[in-house]
Every structure is written in structure tokens, then in C-alpha cells.
Design goal:
Layout: H1 2-20, E1 25-28, H2 30-36, H3 38-75, H4 81-135, E2 139-142, H5 156-163
Parallel strand pairs: 1-2
Helix pairs in contact: 3-4, 4-5
């Protein structure tokens, strides 16, 4: 019985090795492409220039609130209770407005980034597909989803070259 099991195991291993010869697997590092691609850099700069004025305005509002808080701390000893409450209410209103503006800013910035970078992802996928067909890959996986791979399986440089 043991000889039968060992024989079947050896047969399975032999089939796996033979099948492995026809399988070609590649790995692509999307993160590296996003960090090194000139097109991605260009889009990032465009987005940064587009949203920088609003970001600066939000930082100025944040600083103005901080200045009001410091002013309240300094002057609270000579202010009436009603003045202190009015100042605290004003600070709270400004904080709420700032939080709403920051949330809207983040949402709009994220949407613009997804829109602009969505085209890059399509280009990456097209380049990967082109390489896969040309070089007869059976499977190409993203680096983020792989624990270990041999360096010769990495096709990231080829993808970058194909995208240009």
C-alpha cells in the first residue's frame, strides 16, 4: 500500500514538473510604475498645482482658528463670561466650517486623482496584456499580491518601456 502511495506521489510530481515547463508567469510592480513613470509624475504635478491654492487657503483658515484660540487664552482673564462664550462659539463655528471644507477638498482631490490616474491604469493593463501575448505568458500577477518570486519573473521594466 505504501509503495502504491509513493508511486502515485512520484507520478504526480512528474506531471507537475512537465506541466510547469509550459507555464510562464510574470510579476509586475504597479507601485514602482506609479513612482517612476514620467506620465504619472506629470499628472501628480498637475493635480498638485490645481489643488495647491485651496490647500493653502485651508491651512490659512486653520492658522486663523489657532490664533483665535490663543487670543482667547490670553484675554480670557479680562473678558466677561458672555464674551468668552461668544468667542468659543465663534471658534467652534469656524472649526465646523473648516472640517466641512477639508472634507469637500479631500473628496474632490481624490475624485480628480482617480479620474486622471484611471487612464494610467488602463495603459498599464494594455502594456501588460501586450507583453503577455507577445512573450506567451500564462499568468502575470501584481507584486503586491506575491510573497516571493524570482527576480527574472519581474516584467516591470518591460511594462514601463512599452508604455512610453
Amino acid at each position: 500500500m505504501k509503495k502504491l502511495i509513493v508511486g502515485l506521489l512520484l507520478l504526480c510530481v512528474t506531471w507537475a514538473v512537465e506541466a510547469d515547463d509550459s507555464v510562464k508567469i510574470g510579476v509586475v510592480d504597479i507601485q514602482r510604475i506609479m513612482q517612476t513613470s514620467p506620465e504619472v509624475r506629470s499628472i501628480s504635478e498637475k493635480l498638485q498645482n490645481q489643488f495647491k491654492p485651496r490647500e493653502d487657503k485651508l491651512k490659512a483658515q486653520e492658522q486663523a482658528i489657532e490664533d483665535l484660540v490663543n487670543k482667547l487664552k490670553r484675554n480670557s482673564a479680562v473678558m466677561t463670561a458672555a464674551q468668552i462664550e461668544a468667542q468659543k462659539s465663534q471658534i467652534d463655528d469656524k472649526r465646523n466650517d473648516l472640517q466641512a471644507a477639508q472634507a469637500q477638498f479631500m473628496q474632490e482631490a481624490r475624485a480628480a486623482q482617480e479620474k486622471d490616474l484611471g487612464g494610467i491604469i488602463e495603459k498599464i493593463n494594455a502594456a501588460v496584456e501586450q507583453i503577455a501575448k507577445r512573450e506567451h505568458y500564462t499568468l502575470i500577477v501584481q507584486r503586491d499580491h506575491v510573497v516571493y518570486y524570482q527576480p527574472n519573473m519581474d516584467i516591470t521594466s518591460e511594462v514601463l518601456a512599452t508604455m512610453e
